[in-house]
Design brief:
Elements: H1 4-13, E1 27-30, H2 35-40, H3 42-51, E2 56-59, H4 67-76, E3 80-85, H5 88-93, H6 95-105, E4 109-112, H7 123-142, E5 146-150, E6 158-159, E7 162-163, H8 164-171, E8 177-182, H9 183-188, H10 193-199, E9 206-209, E10 211-212, E11 230-231, H11 240-250, E12 254-257, H12 264-277
Parallel strand pairs: 1-2, 1-12, 2-3, 3-4, 4-5, 5-8, 8-9, 9-12
Antiparallel strand pairs: 6-7, 10-11
Helix pairs in contact: 7-8, 10-11
């Protein structure tokens, strides 16, 4: 007679493992990836982006067009700008103008990717930045927009809160100011992207999908990092199954491929194939 323990052991081994899932997005492209092409031939570049299969873009400029002209060109190619980058000076000079442009584009998010500071980034810099982000975020929220800050790795110096990123997160009001995770730059800052997502669940509605070359030095100024350090997803050192699993669990809402490499036209299809095949 089969013992109860043996039966349960066999029965348990027959249970299927939880099925791994595909990456489901929503996925867009950060147009900065094709900045060289867009500067030379914007209509052709937008057509190429659509041919690659994208429907969403994150934009940070209009390549010599007005915002209305740029919006019409996007629409003509079946593209939508769901997120818009805005510089510190733009937001400081006129948050209302930034909001107007974002609404004209139809973007739901406004992202600031810089904090002016003397080196090294300091506690006072973090406090000042967070206060500005809260002010801008409040104004943008009243216009129906969401504000995010895009970190570049220099925010992980020590602070009384742990790191200066922790200081930013603590001081920024999550009702009006959150973050865009660029996985490359979080890794450059010697942080674990998956763990950071879990630590601040719900604070990263946006993500830049970008891998970092294996063995890349993670020291110095982000501005000194060569473009060639950006490699197709799955060929660098990022543990993408862990990152994407954490992103799914913690509330990332939109993903944008960003390739900084000069040969991004060839790299983007490789990243797309990786995302089509990954299971996590």
């Amino acid at each position: 007679m089969t013992s109860r323990r043996a039966f349960l052991s066999v029965a348990g081994s027959a249970l299927p493992l939880a099925a791994k899932q595909k990456f489901s997005g929503p996925l867009g492209l950060e147009i900065y990836s094709l900045r060289r092409q867009a500067q030379k031939d914007l209509p052709g570049t937008l057509a190429m982006i659509r041919q690659m299969g994208f429907k969403e873009l994150e934009v940070g400029g209009y390549y010599g067009r007005t915002v209305s002209e740029f919006k019409r060109m996007l629409a003509a190619n079946g593209l939508a700008a769901t997120s818009m980058m805005a510089g510190w000076d733009q937001l400081s000079n006129s948050t209302a103008k930034v909001a107007e442009e974002a609404r004209t584009l139809g973007s739901g998010y406004v992202v600031c990717g810089s904090i002016p500071h003397k080196k090294p980034f300091s506690l006072n810099d973090a406090h000042r930045a967070a206060d500005h982000f809260n002010k801008w975020g409040e104004a943008l929220k009243s216009a129906g927009l969401q504000f995010c800050y895009h970190a570049h790795g220099f925010e992980f110096g020590s602070s009384p809160d742990g790191t200066l990123f922790d200081t930013l997160a603590k001081r920024m009001d999550p009702a009006v100011a959150n973050f865009q995770m660029d996985v490359f730059w979080i890794a450059f800052g010697k942080e674990d992207p998956a763990k950071l997502l879990e630590r601040y669940a719900g604070r990263f509605p946006l993500m830049h999908l970008k891998d970092i070359r294996k063995g890349e030095a993670k020291t110095g100024n982000p501005g000194d990092v060569v473009e060639e350090a950006s490699v197709p997803l799955g060929t660098g050192e990022i543990d993408w199954p862990s990152v994407l699993s954490a992103a799914r669990k913690t509330g990332v809402r939109r993903y944008y491929i960003e390739e900084e490499h000069p040969d991004a036209v060839k790299q983007i299809p490789k990243t797309l194939r990786y995302l089509e095949n990954i299971r996590f």
